[in-house]
Design brief:
- It comes from Rufibacter radiotolerans.
- The chain has one domain (about 10-245): Metallo-dependent phosphatases (Purple Acid Phosphatase, chain A, domain 2, 4-Layer Sandwich).
- About 30% of the residues lie in helices and about 20% in strands.
- It has seven helices and eleven strands.
- The chain has helices at about 25-35, 50-60, 75-80, 85-90, 130-155, 195-200, 230-235, and strands at about 10-15, 40-45, 70, 95, 100-105, 110, 160-165, 205, 215, 225, 240-245.
Length: about 250
């Protein structure tokens, strides 16, 4: 009998918030992830204050990583307007950024976007009212459309492939539970869940909600994991990354 293919093991974490003073702090983390997984997902807020100099420190630390890395940016990475410099500093043959793009590693398809806020379910903001409010809603719509495009690209080019999504903002309310309810609209948006449901995604990983909940699922049963580093540390993970087998 032919042997089944070994599962592809994913390590995932968000919100590592690397600072300029972190030289040497992350080497063991990247070595451990490389030893235990086949691919590493970094779900936004790679830097603490959004400075390219912080990304330079992270780039040096990531030399210890010997497995492919797939990243999205977070709100902290955008804070100083240096997000393109951060991306350029980190990207290389082993480090991939997705923003509606698709990457295939070991016959598993990965895509993702930063995402945006807007609220969940019946309390999701609608395209109504002042121009500023409409612009806020439009940002979430645009991010959901980019996510849909990446997933569709995988479907067209690799119709039988298993699909994994990574975000920074949450696509569901369940994984932000624990955060003050007043800020839930700024932690994610149900619009991001719609492409996950339509495109039969196997699992989605995000961060951003530091005191949210580790695990939930969409209305169609897509598994969603909030892998923000503070949540993993509170849950007692020896190394702050979550492991998932595909």
């Amino acid at each position: 009998m032919p042997q089944a293919a070994a599962p592809v093991r994913i390590a995932a974490v968000g919100d590592i918030h690397v600072r300029e003073t972190d030289k040497g702090k992350w080497v063991e983390f990247f070595k451990a992830a490389s030893a235990q997984a086949d691919v590493l997902l970094l779900c936004g807020d790679l830097t603490d204050h959004g400075y390219a100099k912080e990304a330079e420190v992270l780039a040096e630390e990531m030399r210890a990583c010997t497995i492919p890395v797939i990243c999205v940016l977070g709100n902290h990475d955008h804070d100083k307007g240096q997000h393109e410099e951060i991306r350029s500093c980190l990207i290389n043959d082993n480090v991939h950024f997705v923003d509606g793009d698709a990457v295939v590693i070991k016959n598993v398809g990965f895509t993702g976007v930063k995402g945006f806020g807007g609220g969940f379910g019946h309390h999701m903001l609608s395209m109504f009212g002042e121009t500023a409010n409409k612009a806020f809603v439009q940002e979430a719509v645009d991010e959901a459309l980019k996510l849909e495009a990446g997933l569709s690209r995988l479907d067209v080019e690799y119709p039988d492939i298993k699909k994994i999504a990574l975000l920074h903002y949450s696509p569901i309310k369940a994984t932000v539970e624990g955060e003050p309810e007043a800020i839930h609209p700024f932690l994610g948006c149900s619009r991001l869940a719609e492409p996950l449901n339509r495109q039969n995604v196997l699992a989605c990983f995000h961060g951003h909600a530091h005191i949210g909940t580790l695990e939930g699922e969409t209305s169609h049963g897509v598994k969603v994991f909030n892998v923000a580093k503070p949540i993993l540390q509170k849950a007692g993970f020896a190394m702050p990354f979550f492991l998932f087998d595909v």
